[in-house]
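This part of the workshop introduces the protein records we will be handling. Getting from the letters to the C-alpha cells is the skill we practise here. The record below serves as our worked example for the rest of this section.

…
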Amino acid sequence: MAPATRCGRSRTWRAFPVTRSPSRFALLNQMFWSDHAPPHFHALYAEHEVLIDIRTLDVLEGEMPRRALALILEWAQEHRAELMEDWKLCARNQQPQQDSPLAITPPIQPRMPWRVESVEALAGFRLHVRFVDGTEGTVDLDTLIHSPGARVFASLADSALFTQVFVEHGAVTWPGEIDLAPDAMYAEIKKGVQ
C-alpha cells in the first residue's frame, strides 16, 4: 500500500478528576503527521474513542461516555488555537510544541476497528499490521521515508531504527515520537490497495 499513510505522535494532554477523591482518570489525545482532513484529533478514554473536529468541536466518529466527552470538549475549547497550530505543524511533518508529560499513564484499551493490535517490520521499509477487528495487510513506507519532504520520517531510513517499531495505544510507533495514524492505514488496507 502506498502511503496515504498518515503519521504522528501521541500526547496525553490532561488528567481530569472524576470525583472529589484523589483518584483521577486520563484522556489520551492523539494527532498524527499529515493526517486526513478536516483538522481533528483522536481522544481516547479506556476502550472509548472519538475523532473531534478542531474547528467546530463536533464528534466526527466514535463514542465516549458523556462526562469524559464533556471534559475533553471543555479542554479543547480552551486550547483550540494551540490544537490548530499543532495540526498545521503536523500537516507539514514538523514537530508540534512539546507538552508536559503527566505522571499518569491512561489505561487505554483500544477497541475501534482501526486500532493496531500487532506490527512487524519487513524488508524494504514495509510493515505488516493487524488491526483489532482482524483486518491485516502490508504498508510500504519506502517512498515516504526517502522523499525530500520526509522530515520527521527521514530518521526511519536507518533500518536499525525502523525495526524498533512497536504498538502503543493502538498506533504503530517508533522511538522519537514517530507514529502512524491507524485509521488512515486501516482505510487504505480495507480498500485493498497494495
About this structure: Residues 1-24, 100-104 have pLDDT under 50 and may be disordered.
